[in-house]
Q: What sequence folds into this?
């Protein structure tokens, strides 16, 4: 059976560069067989016109993480600048595929304060549950800022190598093409909604409604990317991996389900806290 699956795996990768519809079927098949890294490497290969096996090998050698305990708020205030931030990349440690707890998806244009508050909350909750600090993939630390070419090429594999996709979504998140590309990769890999965490970065009810609306109406073709060549390449990948149903429709459905799961979880937590408070009041009376 293993040999048979490997033959099909090779056939699927051969199909990858031809028919869009067959390419999608190949990705879906590989995802179902637990070949997520192969699917991700295939997506990366399409992006860089490279060999799928070579991309996977490079990604495995370059895959890194930053420990939450090594991140400081001032380092998260601005997007990376090569000369200044290469020192941050030196703080990252090499990792095996599947070792990293979360891939952080965020927009550098969103509020640093809100982002730090929510990231701190998530990481502190993780530490309470697991007894250790979480290992995170964060672009500023895990991408070579002097020459980011290889790391950008390997992004789909890096995402596949993380246990969870952690989305910190503020007012500008859906406007950033790379952020939506990360979600497209997550969906194409066949990862379940339960493997993603959505945190809304809002300071009041109006912003909360606005950010939720941005998820419901997001449009990958309206999202921004400063490099037109990369923008065209990402659009090509997105169209190839969503030949059956467009990404906008698929993505909005994904966000709807993720929002529902997030709100249900928040209601359950709130209900539990209320019960605990009631028990405490009864015991003290």
A:
């Amino acid at each position: 059976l293993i040999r048979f699956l490997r033959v099909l795996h090779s056939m699927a990768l051969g199909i990858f560069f031809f028919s869009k519809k067959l390419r999608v079927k190949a990705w879906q098949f590989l995802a179902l067989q637990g070949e997520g890294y192969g699917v991700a490497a295939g997506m990366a290969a399409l992006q860089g016109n490279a060999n799928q096996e070579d991309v996977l090998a490079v990604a495995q050698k370059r895959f890194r993480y930053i420990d939450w305990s090594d991140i400081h708020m001032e380092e998260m205030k601005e997007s990376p600048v090569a000369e200044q931030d290469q020192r941050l990349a030196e703080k990252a440690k090499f990792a095996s595929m599947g070792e990293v707890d979360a891939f952080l998806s965020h927009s550098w244009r969103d509020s640093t304060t809100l982002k730090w508050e929510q990231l701190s909350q998530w990481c502190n909750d993780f530490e309470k549950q697991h007894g250790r600090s979480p290992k995170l993939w964060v672009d500023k630390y895990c991408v070579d800022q002097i020459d980011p070419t290889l790391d950008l090429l390997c992004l789909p594999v890096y995402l596949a190598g993380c246990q969870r996709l952690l989305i910190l979504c503020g007012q500008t998140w859906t406007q950033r093409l790379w952020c939506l590309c990360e979600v497209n990769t997550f969906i194409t890999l066949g990862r379940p909604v339960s493997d993603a965490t959505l945190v809304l970065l809002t300071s009041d009810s109006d912003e909360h409604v606005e950010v939720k609306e941005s998820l419901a109406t997001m449009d990958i073709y309206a999202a921004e990317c400063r490099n037109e060549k990369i923008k065209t390449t990402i659009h090509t990948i997105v169209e190839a991996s969503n030949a059956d149903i467009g990404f906008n429709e698929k993505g909005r459905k994904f966000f709807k389900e993720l929002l529902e799961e997030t709100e249900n979880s928040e209601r359950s937590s709130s209900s539990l806290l209320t019960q605990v408070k009631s028990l405490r009041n009864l015991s003290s009376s």
